[in-house]
Amino acid sequence: MQAIEIQTFGPPEGLVLVDRPDPAPATGQVLVTPEAIGVGGVDAVIRRGTLGGYGFTTGFVPGAEVAGTVGAVGDGVDPSWVGRRVWAFTGTGGAYAEQAVADVADVVPLPDGLGGVDAVALGSSGPVAHFALAQAHLAAAESVLIRGAAGSIGIAAVQLARAAGAGTIAVTTSSPERGRRLRELGATEVLDRSGDGATELDVLLDVAAGPDLASWFDRLAPNGRMVVVGVVAGMPPADFGAGLLANFRRSLTFGTFSADTIPRADRNAVTAAQFAAVVRGDLSAVVHDVLPLADAAVAHRRMDAGEVFGRIVLVP
């Protein structure tokens, strides 16, 4: 099969199309032939080498999710999965390929009427937004700011905050056109990336992080909550917690969120519910572009340039 490897960490040019042996499903796994492959922000973070301490090495195949058809199953897996269209979480990698394996516990059937492209545009991002807002205890009529809202997590969070009855739904983004599209999805205030004008926020959902993370503590109301779900702008400085302590008397809360902490059954239930919502028209999966697998480096260049609204999807 053909697959994309990270042959050098750093710029997108390190992503190279290669031939690799076809994978085989191990015990408890399924083999999926993808019709669509999601390109996520975490893929770019890994490719840049930002998470070098997590054991990623050259030759790594990035990508965390695919939608396609189950072609084979490993020992201990119900053979009735074969031939079914599914969304599958492949872990931290392995999805940028013509064949992918996933634990059967990380597989969700696709409902009739949902295409693979839409499935991977929402699949992992929607549950992250759902559980991160729950961790922040967002309540009806409260204000929320979604920092870095033009990505797939931010877009899902805007829609979910609207459905939850949030009062102010503020977003940061890089252009008036993106702001217009975010308003159509439910945002009530659009700010530039500096966030100037945002104050007294009950909840701040941060996809970006980066070197100025601590400055955002000043935007929170007393008892405000910040939850970081990504580091697409880079890691914060080691002393960012000093900014939290400087606001000690305002009883602020800071947390991080990873879907790794959610039981698979709970995550899959939310994923299935969100897929059904897309079919009904109650939730939108926003696709920036669909590119061939061989153009993975093009997709990453667009992400690095900040051009992407929603998600880029690769097709084999």
UniProtKB/TrEMBL annotation:
<dbReference type="Pfam" id="PF08240">
    <property type="entry name" value="ADH_N"/>
</dbReference>
<protein>
    <submittedName>
        <fullName>Zinc-binding dehydrogenase</fullName>
    </submittedName>
</protein>
<dbReference type="Pfam" id="PF00107">
    <property type="entry name" value="ADH_zinc_N"/>
</dbReference>
<dbReference type="InterPro" id="IPR036291">
    <property type="entry name" value="NAD(P)-bd_dom_sf"/>
</dbReference>
<dbReference type="InterPro" id="IPR011032">
    <property type="entry name" value="GroES-like_sf"/>
</dbReference>
<dbReference type="InterPro" id="IPR051603">
    <property type="entry name" value="Zinc-ADH_QOR/CCCR"/>
</dbReference>
<feature type="domain" description="Enoyl reductase (ER)">
    <location>
        <begin position="10"/>
        <end position="314"/>
    </location>
</feature>
<dbReference type="InterPro" id="IPR020843">
    <property type="entry name" value="ER"/>
</dbReference>
<keyword id="KW-0521">NADP</keyword>
<dbReference type="InterPro" id="IPR013149">
    <property type="entry name" value="ADH-like_C"/>
</dbReference>
<dbReference type="InterPro" id="IPR013154">
    <property type="entry name" value="ADH-like_N"/>
</dbReference>
